[in-house]
């Protein structure tokens, strides 16, 4: 009889649960996070194993890739959509592993996308670039704060970017202020070099992908945002509609209604936070430099507030991006803002 396997993955161990098609629990064991140990447990049952479900945690790459290389049919379980019965008196790693196997057995396991392993490092490098940009911004703000409280001077970002470490040090009289200023400017310089290197390397790879050039035709979407959207989206075929894609981009409101009344909120963090960031950034640029986008944003803002208006425009852009990628066409503002076009 065939066997289903559920693996509840953690940072330092993996709980494996094996179940047959009749729901009988055959074996469970907690093993260290080493591929050899997981394979050692599963190999005696390999001919009978029909599917293996691995929980999508931050560290799933090594396990999924390793099991696939050894011929195991692996699926990635989406934990954001998996909720056990809330009336359970006790739940632990064993019950979680068997729950994954049970969902597999019933054919109702919510699956996540296993991103192509060759493109995955490129995507992750661009994510690291975003982290470096945030660290550089924090250093800019810290240096501005130092100038404001010590000198009573507010430096513009344009001036700050041109400062050398020696010039920054000479602005202050106390040696410890000089030390901090010099180190911060040097760190900013090193971070800028790393950011530019990552951008150059990623652009050399991702610019050859089919969606990249099409995405550049969207308002507010420049090189970095187009790269982010391209790499974070993956195959556009996995999204059945523009609405599904907008939801994945966190551009759709999370709500729970009953009889027309709000009964709390659902998981607003379900989806891809990097795509959510990219389309909000694109929305902010689009409303500044694109007339139809600005017209839509201003009308929505008059009805609600600036935050909701920005998010609504981001939703528009995400749906436009889906059409651009799925149909392999350039952006058409008349399709995105038909009402505004007629009015104009």
Overview of the molecule:
With 344 residues, the chain is of the alpha/beta class. The protein folds into 3 domains: 3-112, Ribonuclease H-like superfamily/Ribonuclease H (Nucleotidyltransferase, domain 5, 2-Layer Sandwich), CATH 3.30.420; 120-206; 210-343, no CATH class. The protein is 56% helix and 12% strand. The chain has helices at residues 35-42, 61-69, 93-106, 120-151, 157-162, 165-170, 175-206, 210-215, 223-233, 242-248, 273-289, 291-303, 306-327, 333-336, 338-343, and strands at 3-9, 13-20, 25-32, 49-55, 74-77, 111-112, 257-258, 261-262. The strands form 2 sheets. Strands 3-2-1-4-5-6 form a 6-stranded mixed β-sheet. Strands 7-8 form a two-stranded antiparallel ribbon. β7 (257-258) and β8 form a beta hairpin. α9 packs antiparallel against α11, α10 (242-248) packs across α13 (306-327) and α11 (273-289) packs across α13 (306-327). 28% of the residues are buried. The model has no long low-confidence stretch (mean pLDDT 91).
């Amino acid at each position: 009889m065939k066997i289903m396997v559920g693996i509840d993955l953690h940072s330092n161990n993996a709980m494996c649960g094996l179940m047959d098609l009749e729901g009988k629990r055959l074996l469970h064991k907690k093993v260290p996070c080493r591929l050899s140990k997981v394979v050692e447990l599963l190999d005696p049952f390999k001919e009978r194993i029909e599917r293996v479900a691995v929980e999508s945690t931050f560290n799933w790459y090594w396990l999924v890739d390793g099991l696939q290389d050894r011929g195991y049919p692996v699926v990635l379980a989406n934990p954001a959509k998996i909720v056990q019965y809330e009336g359970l008196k006790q739940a632990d790693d064993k019950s979680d592993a068997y729950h994954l196997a049970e969902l597999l057995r019933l054919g109702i396991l919510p699956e996540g996308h296993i991103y192509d392993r060759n493109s995955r490092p490129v995507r992750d490098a661009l994510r690291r670039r975003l982290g470096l940009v945030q660290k550089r911004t924090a250093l800019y703000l810290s240096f501005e704060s130092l100038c404001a409280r010590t000198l009573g001077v507010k430096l513009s970002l344009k001036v700050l970017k041109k400062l050398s470490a020696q010039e920054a040090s000479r602005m202050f009289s106390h040696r410890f202020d000089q030390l901090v200023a010099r180190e911060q400017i040097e760190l900013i310089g090193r971070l800028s070099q790393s950011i530019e290197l990552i951008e150059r390397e990623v652009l050399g790879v991702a610019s050859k992908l089919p969606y990249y050039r099409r995405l550049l035709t969207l308002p507010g979407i420049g090189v970095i945002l187009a790269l982010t959207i391209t790499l974070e989206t993956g195959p556009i075929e996995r999204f059945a509609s523009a609405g599904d894609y907008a939801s994945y981009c966190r551009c759709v409101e999370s709500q729970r209604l009953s009889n027309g009344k709000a009964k709390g909120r659902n998981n607003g963090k379900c989806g891809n936070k990097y795509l959510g960031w990219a389309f909000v950034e694109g929305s902010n640029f689009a409303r500044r430099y694109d007339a139809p986008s600005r017209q839509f944003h201003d009308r929505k803002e008059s009805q609600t507030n600036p935050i909701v208006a920005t998010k609504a425009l981001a939703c528009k852009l995400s749906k436009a991006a889906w059409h651009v990628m799925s149909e392999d066409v350039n952006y058409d503002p008349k399709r995105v803002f038909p009402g505004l076009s007629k009015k104009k």
